[in-house]
Write a structure and sequence with these properties.
single chain, about 30% helix, globular, about 25% strand, nine-stranded mixed β-sheet, alpha+beta
């Protein structure tokens, strides 16, 4: 069963740090080096000092982060709540077209699944080298500074009353992060009915696969080291949950820009595409046409040959994509692009570098400027497709989804040593 529960979260003390805008941030992995420097300079207590620490005083960056954490707790910059709680989260944001969205969920801690348990499912492959950094930080600080972003099904809206405080009282925390998202946080009692609701639920990782894997590896290493009896604080990790039915749970596509293989002619490519796709040249808004079209439709922009809509013909997809993956994987437009167009039709070699860009305008600008020869625009992968691939234990192609905004870092976190 999926085990989630309330916890005594650690939060900033506003009397010490001032504006929450100056300390709460996006997750570490979406902060550029330039943004890191900017955030470091905004406040000596900015969360990047913990999640993207620097070497200082002859100590490595992880030891320095642990020293900062201990000092901030000792000095009251950070305070632990006195009761186990859930933390309701609202994020308001704009998409690339300027449309406003509101997404609601909550922070909790979740039990790391035991070997063989499949209560938390992902859709992305993880790599050990990407885990090492967060694992080192977790070991030295004994904390989950960032949450794993998961989703769950609640078609009957059974948790409606749980979320009600968001509409009846002012939030405990309010901040606008550097990515432009506005977040609000409410601390609420740890209602056992909420934990019971999730006992028979499967949870799906939307973002943070490597953070989840880090929690698993850390739990295993600590068990091996301590050989404890019973559950320990490190058997749990920080999670943010959002219902997949929430209208603000929006998944954006990650478009691709690239150069064609050496010697490849665009005219030859278009002829090959005709076997599998209806190829239609267009002078209209390519991104809008892709999004509004039905079925599998992919946009192609070429530096010299113009723009085209590629509509997959009514075929058995195994003919184009093979049968080494199941129907959930073959249903993805991004699978049609990678396996069908890039690998089979274009012969793009393994290891080819792509530019992944969620903004279609910026993607097309890469072609217009001549920086890249071609670009492919995609529809967004739906939450239902994410669930279907996770249920089928199928890993999606790399960068199949782009979640915005990420869950904020620094609004509340989980300290194993507390």
């Amino acid at each position: 069963m999926a085990g989630i529960k309330p916890f005594q979260g650690i939060r900033y003390n506003p009397s010490q740090v001032g504006s929450y805008d100056d300390v709460i941030t996006p997750p570490f992995d979406v902060i550029s080096p330039e943004e890191r420097e900017l955030l470091h300079s905004k406040s000596p207590y900015n969360y990047t000092h913990l999640i993207l620490p620097s070497e200082e005083g002859g100590k490595d960056k992880y030891a320095h982060a642990a020293e900062l954490l201990a000092a901030w707790l000792r000095e009251g910059v950070l305070r632990q709540d006195d009761e186990e709680s859930f933390y309701l989260l609202e994020q308001q944001f704009e998409d690339q077209q300027g449309r406003r969205h509101t997404r609601r969920g909550f922070f909790n801690i979740a039990k790391v699944p035991e070997p063989g348990e499949e209560t938390i499912l992902g859709h992305e492959q993880t790599f050990r080298h990407k885990i090492e950094d967060r694992l080192a930080l977790t070991k030295t600080c004994k904390a989950n500074f960032g949450a794993v972003f998961c989703t769950y099904a609640d078609p009957e809206n059974r948790l409606r009353d749980f979320y009600a405080p968001m509409d009846t009282r002012e939030p405990d925390v309010s901040a606008t992060t550097i990515d432009g998202a506005h977040m609000r946080l409410w601390r609420v009692p740890g209602d056992p009915e909420v934990s019971r609701f999730f006992e028979d639920k499967t949870l799906y990782i939307a973002d943070g696969h490597h953070r989840f894997k880090t929690a698993c590896v850390y739990r295993d290493e600590m068990r091996e080291q301590e050989k404890p009896e019973g559950l320990q604080p490190y058997d749990y990790f920080l999670m943010g949950l959002v219902p997949m039915e929430d209208p603000g749970f929006v998944v954006f596509p990650a478009h691709r820009a690239l150069n064609l293989p050496d010697g490849a002619e665009v005219s030859t490519l278009l002829n090959k595409l005709e076997q599998w796709f209806e190829v239609s040249p267009t002078d209209e808004d390519l991104a809008q046409q892709v999004q509004s079209a039905s079925g599998c439709v992919i946009g192609l922009a070429h530096r010299d040959a113009g723009r085209y809509l590629l509509k997959l013909r009514d075929i058995d997809r195994t003919e184009l994509l093979g049968d080494d993956h199941g129907p959930a994987w073959r249903d993805l437009d991004v699978s049609v692009l990678h396996r069908g167009i890039l690998e089979r039709i274009m012969g793009v070699p393994e290891g080819t570098e792509f530019v992944y860009e969620p903004d279609p305008g910026k993607t097309l600008d890469l072609v217009k400027s001549g920086e890249k020869e071609a670009a492919f625009l995609l529809k967004a992968t739906s939450p239902q497709q994410i669930k279907a691939c996770a249920d089928a234990r199928e890993f999606m192609p790399q960068k199949s989804t782009y979640l915005f905004p990420k869950l904020p870092s620094g609004a509340v976190f989980y300290h194993h040593a507390s």
